[in-house]
Amino acid sequence: MDSFSGATSGGSPPQMSTEDFMDQLKTQLAQAYAEEFLETVRGKCFDKCITKPGSSLGGSESSCISRCVDRYIEATGIISRALFSSQR
């Protein structure tokens, strides 16, 4: 039996309800968005705040990263609200 065969006879995959499919799609999109968000923030804030990489963060580097991430989150929220309000 291959990985595409379902538990039902005839080899056809089990049917998923539209609601279940939409929930699964939303979960996958949220996960992809979170991964992309973290990668973007990591790259931008690291490039901006870490001038001399070492084994630990200095106080100014730590506060710079914190401010950078906070600003990025705030900007993303503003953009999201603007996009969603324009769709109504």
UniProtKB/TrEMBL annotation:
Keywords, comma-separated and alphabetical: Chaperone, Disulfide bond, Membrane, Metal-binding, Mitochondrion, Mitochondrion inner membrane, Protein transport, Translocation, Transport, Zinc
Gene3D superfamilies named among the record's database cross-references: Mitochondrial import inner membrane translocase subunit tim13 like domains
Domain Tim10-like span(s) in chain numbering: 24-83
Topology class, membrane: Peripheral membrane protein
A single Gene Ontology CC term: mitochondrial intermembrane space chaperone complex
Domain of life, per lineage: Eukaryota
Function, in words: Mitochondrial intermembrane chaperone that participates in the import and insertion of some multi-pass transmembrane proteins into the mitochondrial inner membrane. Also required for the transfer of beta-barrel precursors from the TOM complex to the sorting and assembly machinery (SAM complex) of the outer membrane. Acts as a chaperone-like protein that protects the hydrophobic precursors from aggregation and guide them through the mitochondrial intermembrane space.
Record text on subunit structure and interactions: Heterohexamer; composed of 3 copies of TIM8 and 3 copies of TIM13, named soluble 70 kDa complex. Associates with the TIM22 complex, whose core is composed of TIM22.
Name by which UniProt lists this protein: Mitochondrial import inner membrane translocase subunit
UniProt lineage: Eukaryota, Viridiplantae, Streptophyta, Embryophyta, Tracheophyta
